[in-house]
Every structure is written in C-alpha cells, then in structure tokens.
Amino acid sequence: DEKVESVDIFSLDAIKQARETKLADQTGIDMLISPFLHEAATIFTEEHKGRLFALFRHPIEREISHFYRMKYSRTPSVESTGTADMTLQDYVNSSLMHNNYLTRFLVHKKTGALSREDLDHAKAILHQKCLILLTGRMDESINRMKQYFGWEEEGNIPDAEWTCVNNLIYKNGAKHSYPSVDESSEVWQILSKHNFYDIQLFDYAKDLFEEQGRLLEETNKMLRGSSFTFDYEAKLPNQDEFNKVDPNEPALIP
Length: 254
Known about the structure:
4 strands, two-stranded parallel sheet, mainly alpha, 254 residues
C-alpha cells in the first residue's frame, strides 16, 4: 500500500539543506512540515510545486494555550523567561505575548506596525493559496484534507495510520487543557487588543472554510483522475511568487 510520507523542516538549516539537495524533486515525499512558510516555499521549483494547508485556531485560544504550554514545558529556554512562575495575567502584560502572530507570519512582518493593507494581503494569501482547516471542526477538517489530497482512496493510507493521527490530535490535545477565560475579563480584552488583526483574519478563515467545503462538494470529481488540474494561484514555486498575491484572483479551489 502507498503511504503518505512527511518531512520535518523545522529549522532554517534544514530548509537550506532541503533546497540544496532538491528535496522537491525527490519521489515518495508527500508533505513538508515547517513553521517557516516563506522560507519553505523556496524549496519548491517550477517542475515540482506545492499545495499549502494550515490548521487554524481562534487567536485568543491560541495565545492562552501557548502560555500554558510554555509554563509547563520546563525546558531551559522557557525557564529562562520566568514563564513558569507567571500567571496568565502576568503573561498578557509582558513582552512575551504575541502580537497578531498569524498576520505577521503570513505577510512576513515580524516587527513594526501592521496596517489594513497587511491584513488584506494575509487574507489574499489564504484565499488563493491555502486549504483551510479548523481545530474546532477537526473531524471535518481531517476528512477534507483526505479528500483534497486524494488520501481517501482505498489503500492510500492504512487505517492504522489514521488511528495514529487521531490519537495524536485528540489524546495529545486532551493533555493540554487549561482554565477557560471569560470574554468580559481584562485578560480577554488585552488579548483581543493584541490580536486585533488576527481575530479578523480568523473570522475570514472560517468563511473560507465554508466556501471551500461547498466548492469541494460541488467539484469532488476534480480530486480524482486526470480531470483534476491545480491552478497556479494555489502553488508555492518560490518566495518571490508567493509574495505576489492579487486579491482579485480566484480562490484556491476553482
């Protein structure tokens, strides 16, 4: 049986090596996983292009989860920040808290003030280049990923491997539970202020999730056989083209 093979490129050195060894030209690799979106895009070539997918979570839930994950990780790098002794209130009033992490990540702008143009650019990237998955609708997201990449066909991925995926997502997620935060609280309001653009981007991603679901349902035949063609706006051939996004271009799924 065929398997889905993934490669972790979690460092810039690994990305550089993947580019130099022409990783995209190698057979048997189905997924590249990296927190460096723009840099990872340089691995692809005109002959072997990529399809982007990402799992989205509400920005405030993401930040709260990030804090507790840092607090209890007990790694030397985390302990040096003093996070282990912090409360969530301490964290949101510290320099450690992210500011519109997702928007900055997409538009490659780590520092400086963000603008409406940055938000529009980030939205255009999601609209044209990204298959949207949602943590709050995990079952549907996994099924959509299987459909979109053709992994749902019999024999492509053994049931045992999907059991492993489910265990990783659901059981691992259960280990990282944390206290809820009231939306009227000061903590929530501070987090909202620091994630002003991310919240709007997440709302847009949810709308895209619905739109892509309808399009996949209507054009399911595109995912099988020679009738499926993947148009250019959904590819990541290189960083320069990745950054050239036209808001007027069609969505990821025609």
